[in-house]
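Our preliminary data section would be incomplete without showing what the modeling component actually yields. Below, a chain of 396 amino acids is followed by its predicted structure, encoded as tokens that our downstream tools consume directly.
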Amino acid sequence: MKTSSHSTLVILSVVMFSVFGIALTLTGTLLPLLIAHFGLSYGEAGTLQVSAQFGYLLAIMLTGWLVARAEGRFMVIGALAVSLLGFGLFGWTSSFWAACGLMVLGGAGGGTIEVVMNTVVMKLSETRRGNLLNFIHVFFGLGAFFGPAVVGKLIGMGVAWRWFYLGTGVFWAVLLLFTLTCRFPSIKPEPSADAAAATSVFGLPVVRILFFVLMVYVGLELGVGGWITTYLHDIEHMPTAHAAYVASAFWLGIAGGRLLLTLIGHRWHESAIIVALTSWAILCLVGVFSLPGPWPVAIALALVGAGYSGIYPTTISWGGGAYPAHAAQVTALVATGGGIGAVLIPWVMGYLSEGLGLANGMRFYLLMTVVLLVLVTWARRRQSASTPAAAPTPVA
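Predicted structure:
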């Protein structure tokens, strides 16, 4: 059956990642209200956020296995249905553990979408995959920006938090209907003489380090972005509605950085871009813990978003470009690292905050950003030591 046009698939990806951005930031934005509604400790609040990431991780691992056995379109249709169920019902439960279960479903849908749509996008452009991936992920950042901004405004007008989850479920339903009309290119692995690649992509040069790069990075992006509202509310005594705007600014920084990299990112190798971005994030996080007053701290937190902006799509481009014949498997593996980090790092931070205080819990993210820089530097050196045939190819 004929594949849908490039423009149709790009539009679908843009809308899908926009809604994904809204969905992924919703719980973090509403966290002070959810803490009050369910009567949660910081540790339990971390568990609620991690529930979505646990579902995300399970879905990524399953997608990595399914990608050689099922059509990408069918996987995305199933993911959208699961996301619709998780988000559509979340606002109507009064049980904390039921809420966690529904977030597992919502996160599982997002994980499948992440792997399949990133691979589809790479299939659309072999020469400028990094530019196109950053372009698509700009809209994740825009969704993550507009979501908290609109939520903050509507909270100030007295809208109940549960309606935001129902509205997100409606978005997933519309996307489900549109996806039913589309046809995807095949993303199944291509036959290859590279027995090592076919057997285990984790054994490929650089790929296993990128696995740990995304493990740390996704935990940082979701952790910092998810705790901004609560940190500014509890530590800097900023009203929830204002703190939600700062969370929006953080995600706007992510969107803006990705947009810039869409235009100029092809001029440098992926590794150089990630080193520069991580260094900027470290500088801004130092400012968070050294600047006086809530608004200087808020500005520094917003600017962290620019530092984190292009790391995810650029890492995916690096791994997928190194082994294009196994792009789906490499993407699934590296994204699995991200899923593990999304579960592990915010969960650890939540319980550190419960024992040591929220301010010290946030300092954990500064430490992990330094670890991220070390990992990227290690990956660059490992790449240099690889044989020419295995070395990642810079984006043209």
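The chain has one domain: 6-186+198-385. Residues 6 and 124 are 7 Å apart (CA to CA). Preliminary results of this kind motivate Aim 1 of the renewal.
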